[in-house]
Design brief:
two-stranded antiparallel ribbon; 8 strands; 6-stranded antiparallel sheet
Length: 145
């Protein structure tokens, strides 16, 4: 059985991994979607291998197609209400008006996120005070207790 705490612990183990577009190797390089998929692979989430092997989900620009991005989320993750997120859940955020960034909730009250942050150049954990207004959707990994 995989637990939310397992997700948070694995996400935190990626902290410091350098940011690089279209990568997902802990300690080597990752982008924000690579972090979400990489964590899923490491803890054995249902569908993670299918996601990793699907070439259609890995050919994206720095600003991904919002329809493709959300369709992929709906295919491999389970949607939850934003108000109901728990540590270990996945957030989809926008920096403009389109969904383009992912993070894993690591703590509530106050909310903290683990994410591959291009501006900083690596995976970080930081407060979500400003990011809360950017949250568009929330998901949980399938099969997590």
């Amino acid at each position: 059985m995989i637990y939310l705490d397992d997700i948070v612990a694995e996400a935190r183990s990626w902290i410091g991994t350098p940011w690089q577009h279209q990568q997902r190797l802990k300690g080597i390089a990752t982008d924000c979607i690579g972090l979400i998929g990489g964590v899923a692979l490491e803890v054995g989430i249902e569908g993670a291998k299918e996601w990793a092997d699907d070439p259609d989900l890995h050919h994206y620009g720095r600003i991904p197609d919002p329809h493709l991005l959300l369709a992929g989320c709906d295919r491999f993750l389970e949607r939850v209400e934003i108000a109901d997120v728990l540590p270990g859940d996945v957030l989809v955020m926008a920096f403009s008006r389109q969904p383009q960034h992912f993070a894993i909730v690591s703590k509530l009250d106050p909310m903290y996120l683990v994410h591959a942050y291009q501006s900083v150049g690596r995976v970080v954990e930081n407060g979500a005070k400003i990011a809360r207004a950017r949250i568009l959707r929330a998901y949980k990994y399938r099969g997590v207790a």
